[in-house]
Amino acid sequence: MKHNTKIKTKIQCETTSKHKTIPYMGSKRTLLNFIDLSLHDFLENVVKDNTCNSFFDAFSGSGQVANHFKNTFKVITNDKQSFTKVINDTYLCSNANKNKVSDLIQTLNSIPEFYFDETDGWFTKNYAKDFDGGSAVDKDGTRKVWLTKNGKRIDNIRTLIESWFNQEKINTDEKNVLLLSLMLAVSKVSNDVGHHNGYLKSWDKKSCDDLVLVLPAFDTNHCFEHENYCGDIFDTLEKVQSDITYFDPPYGTNNEKVSCSVRHTSFYHLWNTIAENSRPDVFGKASKPLSTKGYTEPLEKNNKEAVMPKFIRLIEESKTKYVCFSYSNKSLLTADDFEEVYRLAGCDMSTFRIYHTSHKSNNQTKLALKNGDFIHRKNHDEELFEFFIIAKKKPVHRRISDKKAGKGLEKLSTIGTWVKANTSNYSIAGKNYAIEFDKKTSAFFKGRDHEELKQVA
After folding, report:
1. Which residue in 44, 59, 154, 429 could disulfide with 449, CB within 3.0 to 4.6 Å?
2. Alpha-carbon torsion 65, 69, 73, 76, what sign?
3. Count of domains forming the chain
């Protein structure tokens, strides 16, 4: 059955802003159309609800999804990373004077070299070195991410921005724009593959360029009064009420040869250090902050018994009508796992849907395959699909009634029991709640597996 694809949009004002942001693992930049159309298909064809006005992006990351919906809904964002709030405050809420900020950027680009003597040189000391025949590895074995010339410019620029702010020469909005401009410039000359968990051994061509700040294309004509938080998601859930709550959590992996976790604070620590102007004690070849070492939050663990209860709690504690997740068929949880999570969390399972579309592997997977790293997945040879999972939450009185009656727990009393008993595979084909999105035609198909869809399209 082909779904109605005449998706109505709620755009209330236009924007000429182009969202340029930092490289981010799991970025939804290429999936924004899929997420948008899937959400609207669900609202129009499944629950028939045209009253939604607010959207909570709970793991906002680089801000791609939040920025996409900023003229459709009142957007609330959260992330534990401080740099995320800088990005979202700039693109969603800024009232900075563009002419003033543009002049400030020119000043920052023209800081004389001797100003470096006024800084503590922290960024240069920890993350920069000379070209040295092309090697980015220092004598002590640490790898460096910037050439000395750019490390010094980062020290100069970050020191002057903080000085201006402390002297009240710039306000918070102006500071955020300047910090975003610095992060965007830094990303263009960094000797990495898009994250800070490790750096390249030899200097990449882009790292030899000069660091130059440009004015980010931000809007000051905002359609809604958006809100941005920085903190633990469960703390923020207590403060936020929205019509739609969107979770884009760490995916994990079903690669049986990988048991490690992905600590996003570790992978993007330099953006936090630049945003905060902090001076953390560092360790290891990548000079990561000591705070990124040791404890791993359950949401970031590659373990179903740790992750599933947290997903249930996310849904239960969200003050919202609709709960949605982004995920994929090659990540930790299966479609059946999510069905169980939504059921135990008290959702209306008659509205449970998993929209899915073909997707390309991320840079980390491509790099692993290129290096000959062994990736052992049960569905390794299957096509990669991105999921948009959504359902309506039951009214509060019904959820309380279900708990008293023990509903949702009649077959499996614990997640541990579910994980041990569950024999589901990672396929989405044949699920009665599955809806496939064909990118070529922007059409939705229900009740067809991928091969049948190819024949239809």
Report:
1. 429
2. positive
3. 2
Residue of 64, 7, 57 lying closest to 229 (CA atoms): 57
Beta carbons of 121 and 97 less than 8 angstroms apart = no
Looking at residue 211, its amino acid is L
| Residue 442, both tokens | 């922007």
How far apart, in whole angstroms, are the C-alpha atoms of residue 38 and residue 34?
Answer: 6
- Summarize pLDDT for 314-349 with one digit per residue, the tens: 999 999 999 999 999 999 999 999 999 999 999 999
Per-residue pLDDT tens for 286-319?
999 999 987 788 888 888 999 999 999 999 999 9
> Token pair of 405, please?
């009656």
Reported pTM: 0.89
**What is the Cα–Cα distance from 441 to 185, expressed in whole angstroms?**
37
Same domain? For 160 and 199 the reply is yes
Say yes or no: 357 and 238 in one domain: yes
Q: Are residues 33 and 138 in the same domain?
A: no
Parallel, antiparallel or unpaired: strands 347-358 and 385-393: antiparallel
- Assign 26 a pLDDT band (cuts: 50, 70, 90): confident
Question: In terms of domains, do 152 and 229 share one?
Answer: no
Q: Provide DSSP, 323-389.
A: EEEEEETTSSS-HHHHHHHHHHTTEEEEEEEEEEEE-PPPHHHHHHHHTT-----TTTTSPPEEEEE
By the 8 A CB rule, do 70 and 224 touch? yes
CB atoms within 10 A of CB 216: 25
The pairing of beta strand 128-129 with beta strand 146-147: parallel
In which residue are the tokens 């960024």 written? 123
- 370 and 408 in a single domain? The answer is yes
Collapsing DSSP to helix, strand or coil, 147 comes out as strand
Residue 446's domain comprises 29-93+221-261+296-456
Contact 284, 144 (CB under 8 A): no
Sign of the dihedral defined by the CA atoms of residues 422, 423, 428, 431, in that order:
negative
Over residues 230-278, the pLDDT tens digits come to 999 999 999 999 999 999 998 887 666 555 566 778 899 999 999 999 9
Average pLDDT (374-396) is: 79
Q: Are 341 and 379 in contact (CB under 8 A)?
A: no
Would strands 347-358 and 146-147 be described as parallel, antiparallel, or unpaired? unpaired
d(CA 369, CA 373): 6
Amino acid, res. 431: K
Give the DSSP H/E element, type plus range, for residue 103.
Answer: helix 98-109
Tell me what pLDDT residue 116 has. Answer: 97
Angle between helices 335-344 and 304-317 (to 10 degrees): 40
User: In angstroms, rounded to a whole number, what is the distance separating the alpha carbons of residues 376 and 40?
Assistant: 36
Provide the 3-class DSSP secondary structure of residue 313.
helix
Report the distance separating Cα 260 and Cα 281, nearest Å. Answer: 23
